[in-house]
Amino acid sequence: MPDQPKRRQRRADGELSRTRILDAATEIAAERGYEGTSIGAVSAKCGLPASSIYWHFKDKDDLIAAVIERSFGNWLTVWQLPDDVIARDRLMEVATGTAKAVLDSPDFLRLGLMLALERRPVEPKARAMFVQVRQRAFEALQTSIRDLGPALTEDQVSQLATYALAGADGLFIAKEIGGDTVDLVALFALHGQALYDTALRMIAENEQR
Amino acid sequence: MPDQPKRRQRRADGELSRTRILDAATEIAAERGYEGTSIGAVSAKCGLPASSIYWHFKDKDDLIAAVIERSFGNWLTVWQLPDDVIARDRLMEVATGTAKAVLDSPDFLRLGLMLALERRPVEPKARAMFVQVRQRAFEALQTSIRDLGPALTEDQVSQLATYALAGADGLFIAKEIGGDTVDLVALFALHGQALYDTALRMIAENEQR
Amino acid sequence: MPDQPKRRQRRADGELSRTRILDAATEIAAERGYEGTSIGAVSAKCGLPASSIYWHFKDKDDLIAAVIERSFGNWLTVWQLPDDVIARDRLMEVATGTAKAVLDSPDFLRLGLMLALERRPVEPKARAMFVQVRQRAFEALQTSIRDLGPALTEDQVSQLATYALAGADGLFIAKEIGGDTVDLVALFALHGQALYDTALRMIAENEQR
Amino acid sequence: MPDQPKRRQRRADGELSRTRILDAATEIAAERGYEGTSIGAVSAKCGLPASSIYWHFKDKDDLIAAVIERSFGNWLTVWQLPDDVIARDRLMEVATGTAKAVLDSPDFLRLGLMLALERRPVEPKARAMFVQVRQRAFEALQTSIRDLGPALTEDQVSQLATYALAGADGLFIAKEIGGDTVDLVALFALHGQALYDTALRMIAENEQR
DNA sequence: TATGAATGAGGTTTCATTCAT
DNA sequence: TATGAATGAAACCTCATTCAT
């Protein structure tokens, strides 16, 4: 009379539970944003009671911040700025890589941008974390752009990096809204080209002056 | 709660109340997004009881949709695509005008983008309304771009329009995150130039082939 | 055709609801103290849903403070310090009256003393209100004692008033713990006598010195 | 959470943990009462996980009872009724000693009185324990008072003891509310004197009759 | 001699909404 | 043209407690 293995999963497997919670929270938060992510919904999706979520995370803010943190880790493994290519190919390559990264893990960006846009009285830890992550991407872009040539002023480098990031954000949104009608890879290529041309034009203008 | 002694301009009060509610809702929704906007908070901010909000608007969805609708009206008065300029100045002019429009009424864009990013099970009317408004802007851009020259394919026109819009969205976000460190006018000029150059390059390539 | 007054009690009868809530809250709070009074229990006892309690009171703190406030009103109608008796009977009379007042409405005192004893990080409004009420009783006692004779120093007046109040509090507690084995009226008489004798002794000592 | 590297004094650690828990629980319970004392708060204050508290104590009731029990022990070492003094000094001496005891360990009294005042459906063990401790003090007082003279009836002895205790409780509360404005030692002296005078008056009245 | 992890019940409060007036 | 009052559902979070290790 071998009854089915009832699996009283009561043994301590905290790491797995934490992961399950984060998975559920990531999925929901990426779709509905901060306020739209309810602990109850996360609980329902991951199967653990709400009170168990509070064993692993101090509060909702802590949970969403952990979601951003982990998503950023995943994102980093996808979006690797190349270090050894020659200068003139750099921006194009970054553009293409970024297109792929955006396509591969849109959850991170969607949630991050939602957080970035919100202006609530007390800034959630999650937003701060995303902004900080974004700042790192910005600095990496500055470094890449600086390598294009010594003729660019720091202001120009910063402007180009801002424009590079803005294009990426905007194209992501275009894809979100437009769906399949938007060819993200082509658009990122276009963006990379535009950036490169703009940089060259700036360099030329600088030298002329 | 109503502290003024009942004035008797019965006729106009309805419209005024509606306006007060919309003002409050706009402010809150632009800061906190759809879920973050509670009827209670709107009521507290505009001074009218929650039940009065339901007299003016069917439900929360209807209220937020009205917010988008009215904001779009305001936006249109600020962002006027020029119809009669000669082709080569067109994009730059649009770019500069758009920069000003973005700076003037960020609430509309912030709320709209938040709505656009969210993916909730039943799409709010407000989101549909914003997407539709955006589509109109997209079409206006296409028309402008088409006027640059007959050599551009429809695919290219569409791509350029998408890129134009994406740049605007991205630069708006950059401004939201970066605050005073971001010079929106300069960046929109850069964006306009990049668009124009890209369009010219496309035309050249088309003719060469 | 007068049909039976079906009383769809949905019409606005806020004052009655408020009273029902306060009645329930008073009963529970007097038995269990601040923390022991849950909104859920009040809701169950008064029949209104918990959310309705929040229509009438801002939060739990506000509710308990209102309980104290109303109870104090009731208490005042029971405990009236006599204003026109001659000096030498005054304390005894007050003592007897206080005994009756304590016996008549123990809820106010029990809750008040519980609040007074607690030392929570943020002092509840209810505690502040009770302490303030108590201060008024203290001042009334001071006035009464001052009338006993001009020979008492202010320090002595204050000390006697403190002792008078302390005796009342202590006897109330004795009654709470001892129940029927404690004859409150006799003890308050004893307390009044002791106070009076002490006052006389003080006066005598003052004059001797 | 446990940051010290596991020391191996296995033997003594049990008792030490118990003490740490009791210390934390005493502090919290003396400030917030029974319901206000949560296992989580005790755990946070003493640094041991909640489950460890349940290893040392059966449940919350057991914990608070242990707090009262230990506090009473400490109290007894402070408040020693003199056994060998002559009758007429006795009450005064007790009064002064009690003032000091009250000043030295207010936590015990505060918690005890809070427990005594509460009226919850199932009486906590801690309340029963405090009431029983109090009964012992009551009996000691009776013995002391009885020694004042054989002329006092048992009713009078009981009444005087009740009044003695009530005064102590009331003065403690006065101190709790009034803080530094209350001179406890002077008031306890006054109380002792009043008791002594009252006793003498009773004896005189008895003999007169 | 502990403790990490879990859990159901219940805590306070806010939610969107309705309805009688 | 409003609004005072009510309401069930759900929000976030804490509760006392258990149990396998």
Report on this model:
Chains A, B, C, D: InterPro entries: Homeodomain-like_sf, HTH-type_TetR-like_transc_reg, HTH_TetR. Chains A, B, C, D: It holds the Pfam family TetR_N. Chains A, B, C, D: GO terms for molecular function: DNA-binding transcription factor activity; transcription cis-regulatory region binding. The structure is a homotetramer of 209-residue chains. The first copy, chain A, has 209 residues and is mostly helical. The first copy, chain A, has 2 domains: 14-59, Arc Repressor Mutant, subunit A (Orthogonal Bundle); 70-208, Orthogonal Bundle (Tetracycline Repressor, domain 2), CATH 1.10.357. Helix content of chain A is 76%, strand content 0%. Chain A contains 9 helices and no strands. The first copy, chain A, has helices at 14-36, 39-46, 50-56, 60-78, 87-104, 106-117, 125-146, 154-178, 184-208. Mean pLDDT of chain A is 87; it is low at 1-9. The A-B interface holds A 30-36, 110, 113-114, 116-120, 131, 134, 159, 162-163, 165-171, 173-174, 176-178, 182-183, 186-187, 190-191, 193-195, 197-198, 201 and B 30-36, 110, 113-114, 116-120, 131, 134, 159, 162-163, 165-171, 173-174, 176-178, 182-183, 186-187, 190-191, 193-195, 197-198, 201. The structure holds a DNA duplex (21 and 21 nucleotides).
What structural class should be given to the helix and strand makeup of chain A? mainly alpha
Rounded to the nearest angstrom, the distance between the terminal CA atoms of chain A is: 91 Å
The count of domains of chain A is 2
| Main sheet overview of chain A | none
> What name is given to the CATH topology of the largest domain in chain A?
Tetracycline Repressor, domain 2
Outline of chain A: elongated
N-to-C order of helices and strands of chain A: HHHHHHHHH
Please count the helical segments of chain A.
9
Q: What CATH first level of the largest domain in chain A would be assigned?
A: Mainly Alpha
Please identify which CATH superfamily of the largest domain in chain A we are dealing with. Answer: Tetracycline Repressor, domain 2
Q: Identify low-pLDDT runs of chain A.
A: 1-9
Helicity range of chain A? over 70%
Largest interface: A-B, 44 and 44 residues
CATH architecture designation of the largest domain in chain A:
Orthogonal Bundle
What is the subunit organization of this protein?
A: homotetramer
| Proportion in β-strands of chain A | under 5%
> Average pLDDT of chain A, to the nearest integer?
87
Radius of gyration of chain A: 21 Å
Report the count of strand segments of chain A: 0
